[in-house]
Amino acid sequence: MQAGESAEDQKPPELSDPEQWVDLHGDYLFKYALMRLRDPARAEDAVQETFLAALKGGKSFAGRSAEKSWLVGILKNKIFDHYRKASRETSFTDLDFYADEESDRFVADGAGKGGWIHELGPVEWSPNPGAGLDNDIFWKTFQECAGKLPKNVSAVFNLREVDGTESREICGLLNISESNLWVMLHRARMALRRCLETNWF
Amino acid sequence: MNWLTRTIHALSPNCREAIRLQSDALERPLPRLQRIGLRIHMALCIWCSRYSKQIKFLRTAARHCDHDREPKQGLPAGARERIKQALEAGKKQLP
Hints:
The complex is a heterodimer of chains A (about 200) and B (about 100). Chain A has about 200 residues and is mainly alpha-helical. Chain A has two domains: about 10-90, Rna Polymerase Sigma Factor, Chain: A; about 105-200, Arc Repressor Mutant, subunit A (Orthogonal Bundle), CATH 1.10.10.10. Chain A has seven helices and no strands. Chain A has helices spanning about 20-35, 40-55, 65-90, 135-145, 150-160, 165-175, 180-200. Chain A is globular and about 70 Å long. The two termini of chain A are about 35 Å apart. In chain B, about 70% of the residues lie in helices and about 0% in strands. In chain B, α2 runs parallel beside α4 (about 45-65).
């Protein structure tokens, strides 16, 4: 097998069969959409629209993972369209979440003002954090912690950290300012870090 | 304090500022003086040093997000049926 090919790509090429799409890819697409849209009904609609658009596209693929990537691409665009539309109707800026930025963990005044209170500062994470990446319970914890982020902060975090979307594009998509984006990301990171530290490490 | 110590104190952020700078550094290059000040602080502060590693780990973990893995629950049964039916209807409308 060449690098980058999965076992499924080794099967003889088969034309895309829409009959099988829902069973082959439905769960994955739904989970992808649900994480980003946070609403099962919306997620279902997005997945349905994706399959219908794909049907019209009429492509065929030589492997399941290429087919899946193509469908994810269509879904991603549907989600972006949703964000663009939603951002015209409501604000994606959330400056309330975690606004105090754990102020109770920092020295309030005097010589050490603004420094971590030693017993309350970040602890050493062990085992080696990377080891968690293979662990199902780690992922469950991570998802639960990420799920606690409010909708708008979650959208920002997912776009930036999960999808790697550039800041400028996020700002355009969600109609938020760069400075607000950075505040939201900072607070999302603080909250997530704290949640993982409490619940996993 | 001698002038060097005073300069270091002036340059380096406190921890609250440092963690904000670390987050921003993941988004854009920091201005030079801020970058230097942050480095000085990080060399001296074990907690901020940990914080930095930890938020970078959050990025790594997020990038590894794998929808085949978690959550276990996928398409609800009703949704599955509705989508299949919509696809059936869609196929009939194809030229």
